[in-house]
Amino acid sequence: MHQVGRSPDLVDTIRKSSSAPPIRIKRPGQRELRVIARQAAIKYPSATNGFKLKKLWYKVNPRGFFYFEGRQSDFAGNLTILPLTLEGWTLLSRGEICENELGSHHIQQQATLSSSYFHVESFMLAPSYRRHSLLFVLGQLLNLAQFICPFDGVKFVGALGGSLEDIRFLEREQTKLKDGDE
Predict the structure, then answer these.
(1) Which residue, among 85, 111, 90, 100, has the nearest Cα to 54 in the 3D structure?
(2) Are 67 and 28 in contact (CB under 8 A)?
(3) Minimal CA–CA distance to 163: which of 1, 48, 73, 17?
(4) Does residue 141 have a pLDDT over 80?
(5) What value does the mean pLDDT take over residues 26-50?
(6) Could you tell me the pTM of the whole model?
(7) Whole-angstrom Cα distance, residue 43 to residue 48?
(8) Quick one: which of 3, 17, 105, 180 has the most CB atoms within 10 Å?
């Protein structure tokens, strides 16, 4: 139930839904950046970008950093989209540098659709939030991306898994979407 005179918002709807755990999308502070770095180190121990590097990127352009907070103020996930310069994108896409070699000069301070190359540096959902929160987060992806720079006309949104577990999860979700299941 919602209060008289107040229309329910999306957060209220998610909280009341038995099929979706409530998550809140917010800008990370230093504490949340540390949590993101720690979670990435657990999931991807050999290819992680530590707290100092994430903090450097955040100082250059914080607009692409999002922290997903769960119902107990726990880590539900995160999304980091880095607006790269042409040089940064070229070096990274050719394999001439690794992600953890991206310096502050490779990141656009003021991103624009025509001058930036958007690199999804991190997209994680904690296992307990994956089943019911993935579609919500993907549905919010365009809204989140517009915090980096305004745009329209997107025809395709894709995702790549960073591990075999992630790839299998995405394949299962893609099958569900094709079949019309939730």
Answers:
(1) 100
(2) yes
(3) 48
(4) no
(5) 88
(6) 0.70
(7) 9
(8) 17
Q: Is the pLDDT of residue 91 over 60?
A: yes
Is the pLDDT at 68 greater than 70? The verdict is yes
Helix (H) or strand (E) holding 56, with range, is helix 51-60
Q: Which two tokens stand for residue 86?
A: 């042409």
Task: Give, to the nearest 10 degrees, the angle between helix 30-43 and helix 51-60.
Answer: 130
Q: Are 132 and 96 in contact (CB under 8 A)?
A: no
> Cβ atoms within 10 A of the Cβ of 34, count?
15
| Tokens read off for 19 | 């099929």
Phi and psi for 155 in degrees, rounded to 5?
-105, -15
Give me the chain's average pLDDT, please: 75
Written as six digits, the tokens of 145 are 């991306």
Cβ neighbours of residue 63 under 8 Å, at least 6 residues apart? 83, 111, 147, 148, 149
Interatomic CA distance for residues 35 and 126, integer angstroms: 12
Query: At what angle are helices 164-179 and 127-148 packed, to 10 degrees?
Result: 80
The residue among 87, 110, 88 whose CA lies nearest residue 99 is 88
Q: Is the dihedral of CA 37, 97, 89, 171 positive or negative?
A: negative
CA angle (22 as vertex; 16, 23 as ends), nearest 5: 150
